[in-house]
From TrEMBL:
It comes from mine drainage metagenome. The keyword Hydrolase applies. This is Spermidine/putrescine import ATP-binding protein PotA. GO terms for cellular component: ATP-binding cassette (ABC) transporter complex, substrate-binding subunit-containing. Residues 95-164 form the Transport-associated OB type domain. Keywords: ATP-binding, Cell membrane, Hydrolase, Membrane, Nucleotide-binding, Translocase. InterPro entries: ABC_transpr_MalK/UgpC-like (IPR047641), Mo/tungstate-bd_C_term_dom (IPR008995), P-loop_NTPase (IPR027417), Transp-assoc_OB_typ2 (IPR013611). Its EC number is 3.6.3.31. SUPFAM superfamilies: MOP-like (SSF50331), P-loop containing nucleoside triphosphate hydrolases (SSF52540). The gene is potA_24. One of its GO terms (molecular function) is ATP binding. It holds the Pfam family TOBE_2.
Length: 166
């Protein structure tokens, strides 16, 4: 369908609730919330820079870690860890974690977190881990198996640490 649309140069409004489909078949996406446009942008831009926590949770694939933001630091709930952020937001916020962004603990010490592995599922190119960080369970793609119950220290590239208002 998209080949035909592009070849003919026509404009099409395509409505779907399937986020993966929307990302794959469009050059622009309007994410709607309560009858209003929450974000209108390219699929790449929506994935890389969601406008708010609603858009991030709607697009899916992300983990959202709640916490507090103050003085350029984000502290996830029920942890003693402060992560550097360039977010100008203050107060309650959420850290958007993309599973593919997880790195070893030493890669980015300024954005290091620790959690406990709850699950591990082989995905072919990586292991998809469910990791409990404070009260939240986040999803990480990891290069090797980690046994459930084990502690895991990991980091996130600072330029990929998107913090949004809660």
């Amino acid at each position: 369908m998209m080949d035909l649309v592009r070849r003919e140069g026509i404009t099409v409004v395509y409505v779907t609730h399937d986020q993966a489909e929307a990302m794959a078949v469009t050059d622009r996406i309007a994410v709607m919330r309560e009858g209003m446009i929450a974000q209108f942008d390219t699929p790449e831009r929506i994935y890389e820079a969601p406008a708010d926590a609603f858009v991030a949770s709607f697009i899916g694939g992300f983990s959202l870690l709640s916490g507090q933001i103050a003085a350029g630091q984000f502290r996830p709930e029920a942890t003693e860890t402060d992560l550097q952020t360039d977010s100008a937001i203050r107060g309650r916020g959420v850290l958007v974690i993309r599973p593919e962004d997880a790195r070893g603990a030493g890669a980015h010490p300024e954005t290091q977190l620790t959690g406990r592995v709850a699950s591990a599922a082989y995905q072919g190119r990586c292991w998809r881990l469910g990791v409990d960080v404070g009260p939240a369970r986040i999803r990480l793609d990891w290069p090797e198996r980690v046994e459930p119950g084990a502690a895991l220290a990991f980091s996130l590239p600072p330029d990929r640490c998107v913090v949004l208002a809660a």
